[in-house]
Amino acid sequence: MAPLSPADEERKARIISTVNRDHRRMLSHLLRRHTSLSSSAASPPSACALVDIHLKYGVLIRAPSGKEYQISFDDNDDADDGSDSSTPRGEASWADVEARIIAMGNAARAALGISDVHITRSPTFGLLDWASYAFIFFFVGCVATLPYVRPGSGAWGAIDAVFPGGVGVYRSVVKAVTWPALAIHVAEALAFDRLRMRRHDVPRWSALWWKWEINVFIQGYGAWKKIGAFVDEERKKQSKTK
After folding, report:
1. Adjacent-strand bridge partners of 59
2. pTM
3. What are the C-alpha distances in Å from 4 to residues 54, 75, 91?
4. Which domain of life is it from (predicted)?
5. DSSP letter, residue 189
6. What is the pLDDT of residues 20-63, one digit of tens each?
């Protein structure tokens, strides 16, 4: 193969620099989509790097492990990815190679079921949020201290005096609510991980993931509303830049 012209060498270097500066998450998606790498093996995205570009052989990407993977431009040509029909197909050229790489990244992201909105923000807190946290912690306290609410104890007398129906009803309510409430909160946290955290590419077990999962475990629907508002806000920003 003939050596690249100075202009093409400069263009190649610029593309590699741009991708490594702005699109490392896309490289992680490409590795997950076109190699055997798992999400954890292709993370963190900041440790992925575009090493080389070849018009015939495609892109060479270094994974966080240091191992390099060749991904051909042809891997994207027959994909039913819903990409724009104007996306360059067939033989790549230096005039369209950057668009080809971006199209491959978009197709990989779509195939992985990942949204174009990446959540990087922690959940916010207002007065109602703190009130719901206080209620949950109060109930946890009720559950934790239930074994100590015994006849003759100060807690028994105090609760019997203020709780509707007396201490017997109090104990029955706490026992009846505990396990169903726990099951609902756990199920909601699992659903949130699958339907929101995974979709918006928040790495499982990361600090951000824990913040959101704890928030949805305690608040439930409020966390779904928060992340929905964040996504709407990001989409508005994207529409303004188009």
Report:
1. 53, 71
2. 0.83
3. 11, 24, 16
4. Eukaryota
5. H
6. 999 999 999 999 999 989 999 999 999 999 999 999 899 999 99
The full 3-state SS of 159-173, as one line of letters, equals HHHHCCCCHHHHHHH
Contact present, 25 and 45 (Cβ < 8 Å): yes
Query: pLDDT tens for residues 65-75?
Result: 999 999 999 87
Residue by residue, DSSP assigns 78-102 as T------TTS--SS--TTTHHHHHH
DSSP conformation letters of 113-182: T--SPPP-PPPP--HHHHHHHHHHHHHHHHHHHGGG--TTSHHHHHHHHHSTT-HHHHHHHHHHHHHHHH
pLDDT at 83: 44
Tell me: the pLDDT tens digits for 160-211? 999 999 999 999 999 999 999 999 999 999 999 999 999 999 999 999 999 9
Angle between helices 167-192 and 207-219 (to 10 degrees): 140
% of the chain at pLDDT higher than 70: 92
Helix or strand (DSSP H, E) at 225? helix 221-241
The amino acid at 174: V
- CA–CA gap between residue 22 and residue 9 (Å, rounded): 20
